[in-house]
Amino acid sequence: MGRNSLRFKLIVVLLIATIAPIVTSMIVTNAYTKQSVKEKAIQENTNLLVQSRINLVNHMNQLVDLSFSVYKNPSFIRLMDLGFRGYQSEAEIKNLIRTIAVNREVFQVYMNLLDRNPGEDRSFLLTNNTVIRPSPEVSMPLNPRIRPGSYEAVVEPTHTSHDYGLALLPYFTPREVLSIHRAIYRVPSMELIGSLSVDFSLDTLSGLISQLLNEQEEAYLLDNEGTLIYSSIPGMKHGHKLNEPWVEPMLLSSAAHGTMEDPTSIHLYEKIETSYMNWYLVKKVPYEQLYRGARELTQIQFVILGVLLLVVAGLTLWVSVRFTRPIKELIGYINIIQTGQLDVDIQVRTKDEIGILARRFRLMMDTINDLITREYKLGLANKTNQLKALQAQINPHFLYNSLQSIGTLALQHQAPKVYHLISTLAKMMRYSMNTSESLVSLRKEVEHVKAYLELQQQRFENELTVGYHIEEGTYDCILPKMTLQPLVENYFKHGFDPRENPGELLLTSRLLEDGRIEVTVEDNGRGMSEEALKELLLRLSQDDPVSDPAEEGSVGESIGLKNVKNRLALHFNLDAELLPEHRQPTGLRITLRFPSIPLGGKTP
What we know:
five-stranded antiparallel β-sheet; alpha+beta; 16 helices
């Protein structure tokens, strides 16, 4: 026995002595390699960002220069002097707009010209290769981003294109665009005579940024307020503030470029500043991609380690197999026992500690089987026989047919109320005597309680008021059959006294935030004294089995709060509660909480 235990210890010591030096060397080498790869990747990506910044500035300068073409067109300058009057002015304005739209990136061009006479402003919109001028004339106010008294263009971050308030384009198809707005002044004065807005597609911008990226990498273009202008992530919506933890530190930093790290990736940024834009170009490099080379080197090292350990593994393999085989056999026997086969023959013949444990475990299972055979199976058989004998005393079909015959006779004698009450009683009996199902939906339980309370209301007439507040989402959840009626019936047995005050009974259900259902039955009856309630709570907290019907005297009396609590705990694996408490000013409230399992689902 001692020899076997020492063998295991020798195996562990041998493996540690062999692996520890090699693994330590691998860890140091891997850490150094990862640091070198990281520094090199930061340098390379910084150079890429600088080049991309230059390309983006050149591209945006071209777009801004395109919007400046209104001041380069001699015909438009002449129209400025004439006040855009004359029959040819509209045609020349449309030609200018078409000239601007020759650029393949232009999606829309909007020009609003202010007339010196109020109400005679003119607007033009080029979309879908068509210049549209609305009638009657409508115009948009000067874009709030334009700085009055400045010839500088203003770049509007990415947004969904619109029709600039013209509202006459049923074929208008919005898309994400980047807009450049510019005020138009009558040169050489600074008299504002209109505005020009050009919507550009993001195709070229996407192409420039995609040159930055390798597999699994991401890129972002943001303005100085954190608004997302472009992202390489497919389907990501632009034009809103990006809520990422690295955005705010980047915006607060005064550095023109830098790096930021989080647990999964590294972010490198380059600041882009011109007279018309203040942007940040950000590249996200996941560590998964960054350290791919280091991982490949580590894999090679593991291959070398495997070769070095091959000899040691060969020498220790037969020892480990002999040591683990009895453990696996014992686990296999335990798995069989968990399926319910408690009389399995455990055969582990080793002489070490595992063999002793297996033999002791076999003796324990033999003792348990003897106890189950003598006590549990015998008691279960007795209860089954008692239940069958009780059910055999009354033929349910005979009762159903008899009640139906009485109800038909009531209708023939023009007594529909009697027929309704007999039908309600038959419905209750059919539900309670149907032994084919033990779990039912809350809907069925509530319908059964309603039938029971209809009979009680007929009995007590105006002395009883009943209310139901059942959430729709709880109707199809399951619970043990005959759970709610005992709670309601207790009210009539112990709390209802019409001589004192009219009775009130309220049944509610709702879904809790933790995914369970809460069902409450409350009344305004006599309630319980504080001592009686404490005694009841103590009895409910005790884990004694459900009472035997033979010991209670009758089946009806045995179905009480304790039986309801035990059946809930049995069906829901102890994840259920039954809590009685005082109701103010008088009465008793009983609350049930149990898991929300839909009809047809599995109990936990």
